[in-house]
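Exam revision sheet. Question 4 asks you to relate a sequence to its structure. Input first:
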Amino acid sequence: VTLAAMLGWFLDAFDTMILIFLLVDLRQTFSVSLVAMGFLLTAQTWAKIIGEVAWGWGADRFGRKLAFMVGIIWFACASGLTGLAWSYESLLVIRIVFGLGFGGEWSASAALLMESVPAAGRSLASAVMMAGFEVGYFMAAVANALIFPVFGWRVLFFIGMLPALLAVF
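Answer key, structure tokens:
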């Protein structure tokens, strides 16, 4: 459970940081202002907040494991769809959908982890889980430097579909 939660946070950070690293390029691709891209980030963040609360309620009602798995599949699909965005408006809607799933994975993984790990190991387990975010940030920087110049921005978001494999795990 600790490894799954850590990988979930890793891939959350990977996708979010890829979006931030690509703001200028996405802005040019879709011919929008930097303000529009800022709005996109804001909308995605509000969707994450709504997702965290809604999925937290759902995890309490339907179970942490199910909420965690569905959240991962949800945000992985939305990440892959980001690579298919054809306009700014489509990108905005997809990123809002992404944020809703992302928020669900965060709240469900934290609750599942705390319930699954013995009390004596919870501090270490939560630290490992949260370290996934920093590792994801670092790997996003590496991927952006190595993949983007060769394959373009869309491929970076297709990589975000890999978390769906975590649901099988």
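Marking note for examiners. The CA atoms of residues 6 and 161 lie 16 Å apart.
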